[in-house]
Amino acid sequence: MLVTGHTGFKGAWACLLLSELGADVMGLSLPPDEPSLYTQTEIKSRISQNHLIDLADLEAVRSAIKATQPKIVLHFAAQSLVRRAHRNPVETMRSNVLGTVHLLEALRSCTSVRQVLITTTDKVYHNAEHGLPFREGDRIGGHEPYSASKSAAEMVIAAYRSSYFAKLGIPILVARAGNVIGGGDWCEDRIIPDIVRSIISHIPLNVRRPNAVRPWQHVLDALEGYLLLIQSASHAAPDATLEPEHAAWNFGPDVEDHMPTVEDICKIAQRRWPNRFQWSHIADPYDINESQLLLLDPSRAMNELGWRPRLAVSDALNETFEWYRRFVDGEDAKLLCAEEIAKQIRVRVETMNRRQPT
Ligand SMILES: NC(=O)c1ccc[n+]([C@@H]2O[C@H](COP(=O)([O-])OP(=O)(O)OC[C@H]3O[C@@H](n4cnc5c(N)ncnc54)[C@H](O)[C@@H]3O)[C@@H](O)[C@H]2O)c1
Questions:
Q1: Long-range contacts at 135-139 (CB < 8 A, ≥ 24 apart)
Q2: How many whole angstroms from 149 Cα to the centroid of ligand 1?
């Protein structure tokens, strides 16, 4: 199995989960930005091939695909940050659009490939902030470069699906996940890593958008959804005529769940670290067209794949903060992740056993 973006947050968790499940995992990404979960959990020692290359380099991508000969590809690699995309739209388009083209171009002549899953984002939706959770059939299109790059990637995927992959019998699945949280995310401009950095450095946090609401979910719940999607696609023939929105799957918290604002999350952190975490609201110096309210409806994945998040949003936040608390207190990231993965697998096995007829 090839994981792109394995030096990033989601990709590192995917490598840990997949290797725990017994898969032969290989990685393809840029080198990590430090600190990283990749280094903290020694991913290098858990994978059989490690290609630290740029997706913008087509020849490097071709030779990595030739060397890995993957059956299943999980494509996470992307410039994933909205504010960085605003500062550097060209880098973002290059990684997210051209990078996707290069990967698919290299994969279409690779005879080992059986399935490809590509993560875009909840931010692909054209967000008029009407207050309703987005469903897969809703219009896509971004107001800012990150969203636009991921919407454009979906168009690229649709073209490669109908022109090449459907004819080869290889499904390309698109997962649109909500905002993923969990231990070991050290990316800039994400609320939980920002809170943890503020606690470690004793520098109060400036919060730009305290009223923002996102479909928060635990990283292991999102990953489990992707694996179920891959499993379900192994039984179905790919459809060349699928429009991008109908080939996509939302993964997010239950729409009935209470969705906290960024301010609510800061208050939870303050209760956990009284006297150690302080924050204030500072108006955004850049005028980025980031949406205030973003909700996702994952009923398709729930109904058709039988997927359910293990954790309600409040529990996902608690587990995430607990991971960081223990890490900051000196515990080993490898053991903390292994504990979370064991919990996830145990709950799933129990659920499956309950569903089995006696
Ligand atoms: N984290 C979230 O909340 C979230 C939500 C929705 C969608 N996503 C998407 O999920 C995927 C993974 O997100 P993440 O949180 O792990 O991001 P991340 O920023 O932590 O990791 C990104 C990974 O992509 C790699 N990468 C970036 N540009 C590259 C390039 N040109 N060539 C090769 N590798 C490159 C990086 O090296 C890194 O390994 C991304 O596609 C992101 O857009 C993330």
A1: 135/250, 135/297, 135/299, 135/300, 136/176, 136/245, 136/246, 136/248, 136/249, 136/250, 136/300, 137/245, 137/246, 138/245, 139/245
A2: 13
Residue 348 lies in a domain: no
Phi, psi of 246 (to 5 degrees): -90, -15
- Looking up residue 143, the CATH number of its domain turns out to be 3.40.50.720
Q: Of all protein residues, whose CA lies closest to atom 1 belonging to ligand 1?
A: 180
115 pocket-lining for ligand 1 (C-beta < 6 Å): no
141-167 per-position pLDDT tens digit: 888 999 999 999 999 999 999 999 999
The amino acid occupying position 202 is H
The DSSP 8-state label assigned to residue 15 in this structure reads H
Quote the ligand 1 centre to 77 CA distance (angstroms): 5
The 10s digit of each residue's pLDDT in 36-53 is: 999 999 999 999 999 999
Mutate to test the pocket of ligand 1, among 6, 7, 10 (most ligand atoms within 8 A of CB): 10
**Looking at the domain assignment, is residue 173 inside a domain?**
yes
5 within ligand 1 shell (Cβ under 6 A): yes
CA angle 81, 253, 199 (to 5 degrees): 50
Lowest mean per-residue pLDDT among 7-11, 212-216, 330-334: 212-216
Q: With a 6 A CB cut-off, is 179 part of the ligand 1 pocket?
A: yes
* Ligand 1 neighbourhood includes 93 CB (under 6 angstroms): no
Does any domain span residue 44?
yes
Read off the DSSP letter of residue 122.
Answer: G
